[in-house]
Amino acid sequence: MQALNSDRTIVHLDLDSFFVSVSILQKPALRGKPVLVGGQGDRGVVAACSYEAREYGIHSAMPMRTARRLCPEAIVIRGDYEEYSKFSNTITDIIKEKVPIYEKSSIDEFYVDLTGMDRFFGCYKFASELRQFIIKETHLPISLGFSKNKTVSKVATGEAKPNGQRKVDFGTEKNFLAPLSVKKIPMVGEKTYQLLRSMGVEKVNTLQLMPVELLEMVLGENGSTIWRKANGIDNSPVVPYQERKSISSEETFDSDTIDVNFLRSVFITMTEKLAFQLRKENKLTSCLTIKIRYSDFNTHTMQARIPFTSCDHILIAKAKELFDKLYTKRMLIRLIGVRFSHLVGGGHQINLFEDSQEIIQLYQAMDKIRIRFGENKIHRAISEGTNFKTFNPFNGMTR
User: Fold this and answer.
1) 315: containing domain
2) Count of alpha carbons within 13 angstroms of residue 231, beta-carbon side
3) Most Cβ neighbours (<10 Å): which of 169, 272, 373, 398?
4) What is the pLDDT of residue 387?
5) What's the predicted TM-score (pTM) here?
């Protein structure tokens, strides 16, 4: 494994303050000013901020009211996800045409595997030219990290920001990481950082010197992974990118039904599970379709375009609305389905444009429970007991 790791050439590309940078292209007067992208109400959250705003201590996921208090002169703008998607797709197309293997890890972040290309090109020169070409074509700032693995390249990108590039020569990974804060290591979130600080660990160098067994005892399975990353060891592959166009779920009932309340509860359950799948895969949808198949096998669908989201409460409300519009025959139904399409990459932070901090924290808590204990361990009360295979159309639901 170590030999494999030493032979690799991995590039990390990350667009700088992507939402803000796109907004500046649309409104050049914003350049050089403290700009916040996100919900405009006091209960909203900062989705992105300019480097000028960061100088006031503002960061993404901060409550908007706190950000405004830190910087009263900040300019708050709504996000334009359609425009972000357009630029992201343009950059994806450029990378796709020029490199052998790439991974799109989010709407504004990419990994490229140039392993073996030194026989034909100077890999660092090639990566530098790729970055300059993206800047020329899009007029967006983008930073680059170059090393032998994904972890070190990602950290190098962070050190190169804004709009720079950093090469970490093979064999110097530990020395590069050693003086940095442990917060720079991927997987070290705020809670892990505070725990490490309570142990007197603030620099990566201290992590490098600690016994891996101690970190495993304190952090569990993540302890060994963090230790390896701190030591510049990461054999994770660049996963070739494939655009998933849609996700869907259908259910055929054992007995045809006309129970509207039951049908609504099934739609809610299906939509809730699909929304969780979106968040797990770091995706958002902007088109929802529902399907109804009647007992005579006639099938009807209805769809609606919506702002990009992965939030249950938005998607469920739209699914219920579409069902009420579509179900007009009052005939027995044998099958229903839900489909999310027009998917794009992008984590839940995109939805911070309008979400309140309370909603975001609720989703994060629910998803953690689902990931740890299973998808069926927490759900909305209306879907409680929904069991498709044991449904009796005359007596309602049984467990």
Assistant:
1) 246-390
2) 16
3) 272
4) 44
5) 0.73
